[in-house]
Design a protein that fits this description.
150 residues, disordered C terminus, disordered N terminus, 34% helix, globular, single chain, Rossmann fold, alpha/beta
């Protein structure tokens, strides 16, 4: 049952991101930035592992952007929640105050497709999303189909 809810988004759907960040103000800034830089994309929000799990069980996403440390767990816990969705083509990106060196473990994690330090900014995060999803400039005309791992 759960895996069918987490299967890949259907062809022609609007591209979307689930942003998991516990700091409300920062989450709102990132959401606004992504919606600006990724024209036509929708950004859903979660502030915890539990909330992300509930959202992921009910909707498929093209991209998950997740802070490394959350009040009720970590990005690793969110990745566990979305393992079935990942197999449907969802890209997972760590976005954290930790340095990129501290996030290097993600390079060898099969369910994490990229990482970026928050200090690099939302524009760079949007570029990474475009790169990992193959959407080109600002996500225009994107179909939500599974991609091979970049």
């Amino acid at each position: 049952m759960e895996s069918s809810l987490l299967s890949s988004p259907s062809k022609g759907c609007r591209p979307n991101v689930l942003l998991v960040e516990d700091h409300r103000g920062y989450r709102q800034v990132v959401k606004l930035g992504l919606e600006t830089f990724l024209d036509g994309w929708e950004v859903a929000e979660a502030e915890s592992v539990a909330e992300a799990g509930r959202i992921l069980r009910g909707q498929a996403f093209r991209v998950l952007v997740c802070d490394m440390v959350l009040p009720d767990g970590s990005a690793a816990d969110v990745v566990e929640e979305c393992a079935a969705a990942k197999s449907g083509g969802m890209r997972v990106i760590l976005f954290s105050n930790h340095s990129e060196e501290q996030m290097k473990f993600a390079d060898s994690h099969p369910c994490i497709h990229g990482q970026i330090a928050k200090e690099r900014g939302v524009r760079e995060l949007a570029r990474l999303i475009e790169h990992l999803t193959g959407t080109g400039v600002h996500g225009t005309g994107v179909e939500c189909q599974p991609d091979s791992k970049a």
